[in-house]
Queue: 2 jobs
Job 1
Amino acid sequence: MSDGGLPTGGPSARKLVEVRNLKMHFPIYAGLFRTRVGEVKAVDGVSFDIYEGETLGLVGESGCGKSTCGRAVLRLYEPTSGSIRIDGREIATAGFETLRKMRPTMQMVFQDPQASLNPRMTVAAIIGEPLDEHTSLSKAEKLARIYELMDAVGLNRNFANRYPHAFSGGQRQRIGIARALALNPRFIVCDEPIAALDVSIQAQVVNLLEELQEKLGLTYLFISHDLSMVRHIADRVAVMYLGKIVELAPRDALYARPLHPYTQALLSAVPEPDPNIEERRRRIILRGDVPSPANPPKGCNFCTRCPKVMPVCRDVEPAFAEVEPGRFTACHLYDATIMKTAGETAAPEAQSTSDKVQQGA
Amino acid sequence: MPDGATSVLDVRDLKTVFRTRSGEVHAVNSVSFHLRPGELLGVVGESGSGKSVTMMSLLGLLPSPPAEVREGQVMFEGKNLLRCTEDHLRSVRGARIGFVFQDPMTSLNPVFTVGFQLREPLMKHMGLSKSAAQKRAAELLDLVGIPDARRRLGDFPHQFSGGMRQRVMIAIALACDPKVLIADEPTTALDVTIQAQILELVRDLRQKLGMAIVWITHDLGVIAGIADRVMVMYGGQVAEQAPVKDLFANPQHPYTRALLRTIPHVTGARAEKLNVIEGQPPILYRHPEACPFAARCPQAFDRCLRQNPPRIPVAAAGHDVACFWDFATGAPRDV
């Protein structure tokens, strides 16, 4: 995991976000004297890059640390260790004032549009709050900007003085998006922006996010547990399990031929809305539950549920390495030296030439 | 239309209204459906489409006021559940009709052990002694795939994970060997890998126990995998009803068609742009005189705004749709 192992992008691809070995541990206190008895390793050594103008999908089950990771990247938490560079500037250790000046470039859209909008503020006040904080626009200029933002996300200007409760879930999410756009950010973390919405509304919000990306050249970190939606919106996808990224690959390659056994199981578990496909599908059913991040297993995090587990997995933690151009995974199955000593051939390697993958961005 | 003699559950013209401060909300409007022995009926719809309220109305599970089941007939074992005594209803609920709720976190009582909650229906409905109930409870936990069942009976709900809690809920619903199991979004709160486990369990239990199941969900993928027959609900009405393969291969209602096009897939070709259903679902402040989908429907014409379409049978057996537009001919239906 030395340099975070990332694809070398094309000539025009510029890394906007570089995360290296990010760790976010939360302490556990217990007993009468509230002594520290351990820590929840919510994010445990995660490295990835996001190229300018691309969408990186971050998927995983609940409790795998994907939201924590997204928040830590914007330093809404104080990371335990690691480095985060956004547009070449270090975020993880920046002081309060420096960080505040950087805030306009990086914004967030939250999961629950109900809880992330202040019920006592009007839509205009919510969208205008970042402008109050970070700009010195006059009242009229501010209002013009608010109207412009409402137009951009498809909200009727006449509703500017209404309160969030008067809007439906999809419209509330649009308010959240308008607020995130207010300061012309370059990087937006979308933390499950569609999870709370109905299917017919989800598509509206996803299309809006895509249009805005095209128009404004935004870069997204799109966090979601919905694998089919991520397949639609993301250029590259990172799969998390128990605080670690187990696989990172360009979207088409990942969905066509997942490498890590966890990704394989995850994809096979997604139900397809087609009874003919469902009939023929062979599912990989994982046994048991995700172990507690306070007490992760020794060796590979996935070894307790992995259908392809080997003795070495329970002992040695696999490195997150590039196994094919642009494709990274943390699994011993793709480690040539380990597979040789195990007396087996590294079969998946053979296919790599036939399936040239596209580089990021 | 349903053949009453062969159905375990036969619902006709069910109508449920909520009285709120801002007026009446007509949540369920003339819903009719039937359930054959051993079949799995999938009910799909967005939130607010009336799918849960329909099922809760059947067993009188809605608080009244504000809810009021105004019309309809629910025939189960020769009795109308909407007109029977509270005692009879109580003897049906949890005994011959089991219910699994959406959220396994809130539907188990946190201050009683799982064993207690499993024994309760067994002792109440089946008249088992405590020790016999304990034995049966352990069997049930074992049946739903909870390891070390006997020991876990003494555990409290918080000691189980989400997927395990949903298994406990299913075990409680199955305790008295019901003829009908109603599952209201049982996997929505769970992760996909856990959802796959639960779906596998339900497929397995159906083979073993052979009960009829009503499975409520908003996930068409889940429906495609487990249902025999599907009922699509919109605006408190049944928009379309068909055998599962027929529905996915040949959807007749514009809403069903739009819904199938709007969801992305994990396999197959990837669309450049997602198809969108414009607009919002309706809030029904009065009895619908027009088609509830008309405002969002690309096929809507003048009749849709004047008249609420009845359920019209279409070519394939057991397939009906509440729509005046015929996609086969590209013209309004002649009804």
Job 2
Amino acid sequence: MLSRAGTGLGTLGLASVLSDAGLLAAAPAAIAPGRNPLAPKSTHFPARAKRIIHLFMNGGPSHVDTFDYKPSLEKYNGQKPPTSATKTERVTGSTLMMSPFKFARHGRCGLNVSEIFPNVAKCADDLCVINSMHTNIPNHEPSLLMMTCGDNQPIRPSMGSWLLYGLGAENQNLPGFVVFCPGKPVVGPQLWANSFLPGIFQGAHINNSSLDPKSVIPHLHNGSLTRAAQREQLDLLKQLNEMHLAQRSGDNPLEARIQSLEMAFRMQFEAQDVFDLSKETQSTRDLYGKGQFGEACLLSRRLLERGVRMVQIFTGGGQPWDDHGDATAHAAKAKLVDQPIAALLTDLKRTGMLDDTLVLWGGEFGRTPTAQGAKGRDHHSQGFTVWLAGGGVKGGMTYGATDEFGIAAVEKRTHVHDLHATMLHLMGLDHEKLTYRYGGRDFRLTDVHGKVAKGIFT
Amino acid sequence: MKSWHLAALCAAALGLPHNAVAADVDWNEARKFWSFQPVSKPASPAVKNGSWPTTEIDRFILARLETAGLNPAVVADKRTLIRRATFDLTGLPPTPEEIDAFLADKSPKAFESVIDRLLASPHYGERWARHWLDVARYAEDQAHTFGVKPNTEAYRYRDWVIDAFNADMPYDRFVKLQIAADLMEHQPDRIGDKAALGFFGLGAQYYKGNDRAAADEIDDRIDTMTKAFLGLTVSCARCHDHKFDPIPTLDYYSLAGVFQSTKLANVPLATKEVTDRLESMQKQLDASDKQMKEFVRQEKLQWAKPRMDEVVPYMLAVWQVRAHRQSNPKYSTAEQATLDKLDVAVLDRWFKALQPDSKTAQGIPTLDAFRKLPLPAKGKAVEVTPEVRKAAEAFLTLIRAGMAANDALAPIVKKGANGSADRLRQDMVGFLFADNGVYPITDTGMMARLNAEKKSRLETMKSELDRLKKDLPPTPATAHGIGEGTPADMKVLVRGNPADQGELAPRRFLHVLTGGHPERFTKGSGRLELADAIASKDNPLTARVLVNRLWQWHFGRGIVATPSNFGQLGQRATHPELLDYLATRFVASGWSIKAIHREIMLSKVYQLSSVDDAKPQAANRDPQVVDPDNNLLWRASRSRLDVENWRDALLAVSGQLDPSFGGPTTDLGSVSNRRRTVYAKVSRHELNGLLRLFDFPDANISSERRVDTTVPQQQLFVLNSPFFIGQAKALAARVQKESPDDTERVRRAYLLTYGRPASDAEVVLALRFLGGKDDPTEAKSNQLTRWERYAQVLLAGNEFLYVD
């Protein structure tokens, strides 16, 4: 038992608190007082993935400059799209613009990848590229909210919160949903909000612009007492709490809090340990590289292997991929993330974790295949690309397609709701059954939409 | 589950939107659902154990317990009672002195006196306003920060709610003011009631790059209003007829029309007389100010204009000085000034202003050209060429045109406007007349040139302006509220899609609450008529919903466990007659919330022990088995302090609480913040970490109740946060100061924190801990004294966090 606690299950003396599997099936809206809302819960059907890592290219990377190769843009470069049906929703662009980057085929599958992702390209056979994504509104705020929370307004819980609500957390000593962003993205904390779900399901934002293991989680470190002195203090507290409880026998909330204090004591050390990158070998650190994104990827691997349910890594604060003025500026953004992403995929694969870890890469929308100004691209929601890897999806495939110019998704059109439904499905959850009753209505991540893209499953 | 009428049922089954026409619906049938029935006046129920009840409430509870074969628990002891009641009504712990007074009061009315004292305390409003603010999704900003301003005056609504609770404002008025205070008459001393409009004025403002944003905002208003006051989920009828309750889409858009005809507005908290007077005085002041400014401008202009005649001679003189210096570097401006009969001081300024490095001449092309004119070669005679003269005259032409503009001298005051032509004009005028120009026009200079008559005119104008400024009443405070827009009905948006408009939905109230015949609203937006319809004693929901909320906030669970949903999908009342009894009493008391508090708290059921000692007696059943969740109230339910009460209690027992009332928002992140938590900033964008950690609701949506979660991150706050450790230190210092020795200090600490004496065993444990010694190798690393560590233990205890 002791060794299990070390691996993060944190089950010492927690039998009663953790024996809550089935809460989900019993009553979606019930978060019973005294029960640990983060206790692991059963899935609706066998899960292909146990955890998710979302590599968020916030700001909106251009699909036609990354993973959706369009030779016709070269042919018609500088011309208006020849068919009137293919119109972008933004008025800024009128003539088509070829990608400033070269594409080449990679892997056994022959996936076309832009030269700005040389390392990710080497993992081509692990990627399931969805070229037929679309979303509602070509503006950052509503589309960021759609991608993270399934609604254009800030009134819904985020996907990570839904996952914690539906599945609980495998490790009670760490936050179950972690968000890395150096600074704040556009919109901000609403992107990892719990909304009407209980507050504990909210994502824990870690500002990875400076990482101090002692302060990544608020109040993690006690600066006033040694471990022994704090233990002595907690022993007295425990004794007084137990005397208090003895006069009020069988009170779940009181017992739960006693356990919770003990968990907090252990969390201080375990959590600091997870965020301590010096515990990794130099070769592993070199694999991921030095930057903030690379560090976040490596930390994510450490969190995921300890049972954290979902990690989301933003490329940066603000909206880094929002290259209106110059499409070639994408190269610098890609350089920040390319090596770390490839490292993460390689590392997860090496340990076998990729099999049940679902990786999502993408932004909130794509960019216009037409030019904005002389050489930039504008926001674009009719068609864009994300890719998945691991966790029960087929590698080395593309799914769906945009038209010949990359303007609109035309084949196997996949809305963000569909992506969410598919991801929940891979996690063992039926997106129509994962509901929470609030204000007289059962809410879902996918609202009243979403169809599962079964074609990408292994 | 039965749907409310066949058409909706079929539509729902087919997944189609259905827009019910009122005629489709049998409203008499629809109104048979319990919550749409008129409030009844239930007879006092018969009970077997007639000696147990002390109030009518007790009879309703006991009757139900007896049916279930359950016995109620015993009444709690006095220490438990006063702690429960004090936290309940004020959100603060009782002081040891208050407890002693209650223990000493042997009269049968002792508890009643405590309740009356607490209801009269201004801390009562701070506590109970917070309950309402949850429902009203009160916040001071928006979830996003793109193009929205924080609502810096939001606290005026919060303070208004606190005052309303403290004043026991009749609830029907409380409701009406929040919906339509701008359309109601106000006594001059109640003008602050307009802050009530923050209920809507502080609502969601969504990101606007979206054609649905306006409709989404209206939805926020409808959702919050109908849940809060009516316990109805009218928003469910936005895209299709409500699937479970008799609310057609048509009704939704009838209400939406009211809000379409309403706009967000900052509302001055002053009477019309005051704002009218202010406006007229401001006009006077503006006129007077304008008149004086015009006078000054004219005077300056009159002096400035003749300076134009000097432009060419001085520019030529400058050129000549520079030309002479080609051969004779010592050639002075004074020589040239004498020659040309010019003022040498003025020439010096011109010379300087036309130097190659002159900042004031920069960016004025004609002057640049002038400065680049060729000079005669060394030794050649100096003679003004036509080219030079032409260049100087070019500048004169331009500056004359510039000065002809109406407010020629204004640029001297306001620099840096955009627009190149205007900018150039400004630069030219500035070159000549700005403070660093060739002819600085200062106020002092102007004054010096005025004749006596003009000087006196200016003085008169100035003193008149000063008088007006002095007499100007202070700008009244404003609150974020709403006002009337352009009244217009909306059309039904089919499936909620703004691009797909259906039939017209006249502005009016809900069919089901008007016997199927709602009358059209005719006054403006119709908001006042809407407010009247909601705050009516004939409305079957309004009083029921509120007394149920009060019940929930006292007992932790409502008689209807879904306080914002009295519809089909809501829970049914555990004690329907009791609910109607309370609603009847409420309206009869003049909608007095404090009357209901008294009625509830004086009941025996409120005063029961939370310890489950209700032993099954012969023939009776074990309540732990029959009703483990205590839905029938056979005992009191132990409750956890809300985060506000908990933080306030920590400050109170450590002696650190700043009990001052009201005012602008405070920052919980600041270590020096010792105010009550109700005054802390509530953000939709990023809620304070402490509030979020301890289950404060998300203020983007109306919250009907707090959910308690217990997780280790909360305990990290207890173990390690500077705030918590700070309170431990303060408590340690307090008891060390207030009591002479450790035993007494421990006893005092127990009275302060838990409101009871320490047991002998607890004293022994405490003394053992206090007398412990740290490992000598670690002693230096431990920065808390034994007393501080002990104080932290007491504050961290379950007994502090939970109320029996």
